[in-house]
Specification:
Layout lengths: L1 E5 L5 E4 L3 E5 L17 E9 L4 E7 L3 E8 L2 E5 L4 E4 L3 E6 L4 E7 L6 E8 L9 E6 L10 E5 L7 E2 L5 E7 L4 E5 L6 E13 L2 E3 L4 E5 L3 E17 L3
Amino acid sequence: MKYTLHKSDTRGYADHGWLKARHTFSFASYYDPKRIRFGLLRVLNDDIIEPGGGFGTHPHDNMEIVTIPISGALEHKDSMGNIEVIRPGEIQNMSAGSGITHSEYNHSDEERVNLLQIWVFPKERDITPRYDQKVFPREGRKNKVQTVVSPDEGGETMWINQDAVFSLAEIEKGKEVPYKVRFPGNGVYLFVIDGRVKAGDAELGARDGAGIEDEDTITIRAEENSFAVIIEVPMR
């Protein structure tokens, strides 16, 4: 197993008052030439948005964007006409394609929002923009892998314009969950939201991440009750 460990406290940090952001990879004013991306995974931001705060209308194009709320509620509006509120247990998936604009705001005047926003380079450029949002019940990831985003059309997962797979797993202390790489040659980026896990030689605590390459199956063992995101992406 080849892996690259990114400890939580080595991430980039920005405090804008209304926004406190941790960047696993180079983003905005944070730049590290050794941490540009992992394969086609370009952005993994861990954002806290204060009550009443948010991102005003801004553009995106040719990027696959997955948003995972951890706590609070996020309000979304876009140029496709979608007006939604996203809460924990839901996943938002957006193919920016040929171009969209959208805004994201804390839906509450009292509670913070904590979310992960993840960007992956697309397989095809300039496709028609697309938006999806879906609830994924917690029992579907209890001590097992729950796939939430994949290139499969018409299934239980949300579609992504890339040979990439996003999954969630909530693992009880002492239990193991295997993740089988779906596309040969893909790498896996494992990000721990809460808890502490082992994956081969990699040991990860809360908000640590590890890029894992050259493995067909990755066994994730929980050293304490843990919640993790598994992102499989092409390496080239």
